Structures are given as structure tokens and as C-alpha cells.
Amino acid sequence: MAFPQAGPAAGDGAGPAAGYRWVVLAAFGLTLFTQALLWLTFAPLESATQIALGVGHFPVRLLALVDPITFILLAAGAGMLADRRGFKFTVTLGLGIMTPAAVGRSLILHLHPGGAALYYPLLAMQVVISAGAVCCVACIMQMPVKWFPAHQRATATGLTSTSLLLGNAIVFPLAALLGSVPASATAREAQLALTRVLDVFAGIALVTAAVFLLLVKADPPAPAGTPAAHSMPDRRVVRELFRLADFRAIALLFFWGLGLYGGLMVTMEKMMRFHGFDARFAALVAGCLTFGGILGSLVLPSVSDRVGRRRPFIYMAAGLTVPCTLALGFIGLRAIDLAAALLLGFFLLAAQPIIFTMLGEMEDVGPSLAGTAVGAVFAFGSFGQVLLPLLIELFKRQGAAGALDYRWSTLILGALGVVGFLFIMRSIPETGPRAHARAAKGPDPFAAPS
Questions:
Q1: What is the mean pLDDT of the chain?
Q2: In the prediction, which pLDDT does 276 show?
Q3: What are the structural domains of the chain?
Q4: Could you tell me if 247 and 1 are in contact, meaning their C-beta atoms sit under 8 angstroms apart?
Q5: What is the helix (H) or strand (E) element at residue 441, kind and residue range?
Q6: DSSP letter string over 289-321?
Q7: Is the model's pLDDT at 229 over the cut of 80?
Q8: HEC profile of 249-289
Q9: Distance (Å, rounded) from C-alpha 394 to C-alpha 166?
């Protein structure tokens, strides 16, 4: 299957066109940051939400779980829409869906007297927010492909991924600051605390939508390597993509990486409690994991652009997974746990923008199908985000003192993932800007075997 490829890059130099692309990137990054705040709103407020609504733990957890489920169902379609109608149209649609829902859930809390009946309108608003978020995230590679020359795309994609991770990281302290309540709080006090959080997040969503609509144009002032011919992707194209060995390998990498990150995040408290650490330290370790990803997404894609290679950075991410997971699971020392989480996040999460960049550079995918490819990969990866935490629960053991032991389940899944990774990386060619010069520069130790 041959897809249309990018034409010659233009507009690579300095000037208004080059400067404006960074303005667009900043506006898009703010959009990704905001969608993370909206879909994760209730994760740091589980106790307050349970008190305010009078519901159990699982219904509150479902308010956050609807997002990966929605991604599984809608991400491929949103990616195709981005390729058909363009980056601005798709993100504007996402904001048009997401922002009214963010305002709506705030108004619901102001107008509703409270109680369990309030839960279902909030759940419905979360589903709508997730649908809008899918449209925004599906453009995470489509935007850099359209607005940035090839030698800057990994850097741009790294910055968009950083925006996602910043939202994931900041929502916890921000929501806790605005809406935390003591265990003795009444339902009314808890509802008022939730209302404060939802009011602030609705205001952020309105500002984000205004900034994006005012600053972002549909097309760059100067082309940056747009496709020479544009295809009209449909669901047959998604099936064709998954028939490609290199695309399947990329999808499996994303499935494993996103699933392992999600599994570690949801079991971190239990892993740390097994070593005698409290929930506050577990939150600090989880924060180091995400903060490491933010640093890695700022640094590694830029380095990848400078050296013109992608595969070595994916190898580093996989190679460090088992020792870092081993340290988190088996070494009960605070400094080592924090360092292992930071190192794991730095390489594992920074692999995400590099993987997205590889999709846009793959010969059989091409920039014209970047949205479709990223949407399909995100849908597959979101399935891993749901499945791998369940497998971690399946393999857990009961400790001698009654504490749940997740060490072996996490380590087994990580080791199996690395073994699978080493196998599937054989199917993925080097796609970086220097790939065409490999023969002239001698053998590449990271090249896929022919």
C-alpha cells in the first residue's frame, strides 16, 4: 500500500512564518493541557466526590475511566476527520464539544441540590468532554506535520506531548488545593468544594477556546512540507494500516508503553504501601514518574531531531524499563524509588512523541495520514491502558502481613513487554532525517535487519 508523501519542505527559515508556527504550537499545547485538566478533574477528588454524591468508589473512579474507553471507540474516527478536514477544524470541533460540557457540569452543581442523582449528569458531561478531547489529541502529530519542517517535527511533537503531561501533573495539586475536604465534611461542604474546582476549570476551558480561535489560522503562512496529494481516509485505510508490519509494531509499542504507565500510576500507592510508605510518598513517586516524562519530552525529541535518528531512543526506553520497574518493586528505599520513577518517566514517556514522529515519517503512512495513524495507535494504546492494569491485578499476590504484593506482576509484564519489544523492533525501520544517508556513513548498529 502506497500513500502520498510530503513534498519538499518550505518555509524552514526565520521570519514571520517561522515565528507564527510557535504561536500556533503554544495555543494547541494550551488546548491539550486543558483537556487533561477536564478529564482528570475527579481523580484527585475521589473522597470529596463520594461525600458530595453519596456514591461508592467505583462510580467515582468511572468518571476518570470514561476517557480511555472513549478513546478506544472514537480515536481512529477522529484521526480520519483530522486528515480530511484539517487540524484547525478538528480541534475547534473538539473545543466546541468540550467547553460547553465543562461549563455545563459547573452549572449542574450550582443548580442541583446534590445527592446521588447528581452523579449521572456529571458522568454524561464527562463522556462529552472525553469525546471532545479525542478530537484534540488526534491532532497531536497532524499539527507538527502541517506546520513544521521535517527537522523540527520531533521537537514540536515533544512539546505537544509535554502539554499533555503537564495537565496530568498539575491537575492533582490544583484540584486538591481548590477542592480538598476533611473526612468529616458534610455533603453540602463537599459539593461546594467540587463547585469551586469545576468553576475554575470551566473558566480555563473558556479562555483556552478563545485563545485558540483568535490565534490559530487554518493554514500556515508558508508551507512546511505539506502532502503533495491528499487522500480521503476511511475505515478501510485503518484496516490497511494494521496490515503493515511496521505499523503493527508501532501500535504494539504504544500499547505496551501507555499500558505500563497507566498500570504503574494506578498501583503506585499499593506498591509503596507494601514497603511501608504512606500515600503521600506514593503520590510523590507517581509525580516523579510524570515529571520525568515532562523533562524527557522536552529534551529527547529535540536531541532526536539533531542526530536525525529515532530508533536509539526507543531502545533506551525499553532497555531501562525492567531495571527501573525492578527498583520500584523490590527496593524499599525512598531515594531509589524517586530516582527510578524519574528515570523511567524520562525515557518511557518521551518515547511517545518520537513514536508519533516515526509514524509521520514512515514510507507507507506519510504525513497526509498522520491523523488517522495517530488516532488508530491511540485507540490501541488506550486499550492497553485499560487491559494492563487489570493484568497487574490478576498477577498480584498476598503478602505475609496481609499487604497486597504487586512486585512480581509488574515485573513480569514489564519483562514480557521488553521481550516483545526486542522482537517487534526488527520490523520498524529507522525513519529519521539521516536514514537515507546510512549507506554512505557505514553500518548502523540500530538499523533494522534487512
A1: 82
A2: 83
A3: 12-223 (1.20.1250.20), 231-434+446-450 (1.20.1250.20)
A4: no
A5: helix 438-441
A6: HHHHHHHHHHHHHHHHHHHT-SHHHHHHHHHHH
A7: no
A8: HHHHHHHHHHHHHHHHHHHHHHHHHHCCCCHHHHHHHHHHH
A9: 31
Q: Indicate if the pLDDT at residue 433 is higher than 50.
A: yes
105-112's contacts with Cβ under 8 Å and 24+ in sequence apart are 105/129, 105/198, 105/202, 106/195, 106/198, 106/199, 106/201, 106/202, 109/191, 109/194, 109/195, 109/198, 110/195
The span from the CA of 53 to the CA of 396, in Å, is 31
Strands 404-405 and 397-398 come out as antiparallel
Question: 346: exposed, middle or buried (C-beta count within 10 Å: 0-12, 13-18, 19+)?
Answer: buried
Contact 307, 434 (CB under 8 A): yes
Q: How many CB atoms lie within 10 A of CB 268?
A: 23
Longest dimension (CA), the chain: 72
Q: How far apart are the first and last CA of the chain?
A: 19
Distance CA 285, CA 73 (A): 31
Rounded to the nearest 10 degrees, how much is the dihedral formed by the CA atoms of 144, 148, 149, 155? -70
Q: What value does the mean pLDDT take over residues 305-317?
A: 87
193: Cα separation from own chain's centroid:
28
User: H or E stretch including 397?
Assistant: strand 397-398
DSSP codes joined into one string, 56-109: -HHHHHHHHHHHHHHHHHHHHHHHHHHHHH-HHHHHHHHHHHHHHHHHHHHHHH
Q: Which amino acid is present at 237?
A: V
Phi, psi of 6 (to 5 degrees): -70, 145
- Three cell numbers written together for 69: 474507553
- Mean pLDDT confidence for 340-352: 91
Q: What is the per-residue pLDDT across 367-419, written as a single tens digit (0 to 9) for each?
A: 677 778 888 888 888 888 888 877 887 777 776 666 677 777 877 877 777 77
pLDDT score of 339: 94
Question: If you average pLDDT over residues 159-166, what whole number do you get?
Answer: 88
Please give the grid coordinates belonging to residue 434: 539521516
* Residue 25 and residue 159 in contact, taking contact as beta carbons nearer than 8 Å: yes
Q: Which residue is associated with the grid cell 487522500?
A: 231
C-alpha span between 270 and 264 (Å, rounded):
10
Name the β-bridge partners of 404: 398
Please provide the DSSP assignment of 154-206 as one string: HHHHHHHHHHHHHHHHHHHHHHHHHH---TT--HHHHHHHHHHHHHHHHHHHH
Percent of the chain with pLDDT over 70: 88
pTM comes to: 0.79
